[in-house]
Write a structure and sequence with these properties.
Layout: E1 16-21, E2 27-32, E3 38-42, E4 45-52, H1 55-67, E5 72-74, E6 81-83, H2 88-96, H3 109-118
Antiparallel strand pairs: 1-2, 2-3, 3-4, 5-6
Length: about 120
């Protein structure tokens, strides 16, 4: 990554807005206001952009973790998530009926309830 041109913060960009960090500030997440993506930084490494496609996707993942809900099966600690195939019909129905729903992540309970009521 090319230096930012700011001599005080050569690896940080003006368009990056921090949104969460650990207590000491040595690592955390930021929103890239030029792209809308969410990236991360950590002491001793260069910031990584586009970790999440949007702020919504980041908060959706946080909500899943906090609620203990799983939007897919985990292959193990630190592993990758596999989408649940049984959620695809709900996503298709939701889009066809004017609901906004992501391609992956948790499906809100209200959408699940509306889907079940329509069957």
């Amino acid at each position: 990554m090319a230096p930012s041109g700011d001599p005080d913060c050569p690896s940080w960009r003006r368009e990056w807005v921090p949104i969460v960090s650990d207590r000491d500030g040595f690592s955390g997440k930021f929103v890239d206001t030029s792209t809308g993506t969410v990236g991360s930084w950590s002491e001793g490494t260069s910031p990584e952009g586009s970790e999440y496609a949007s702020l919504f996707a980041f908060f959706q993942d946080v909500a899943d973790q906090l609620s203990g809900a799983s939007s897919g099966d985990w292959s193990g600690p630190g592993g990758t998530r596999r989408l649940r195939p049984e959620d695809e019909p709900i996503r298709l129905w939701a889009r066809a009926n004017g609901y906004l729903v992501n391609d992956r992540g948790r499906i809100p309970a209200a959408i699940r309830e509306a889907y079940e009521a329509s069957r």
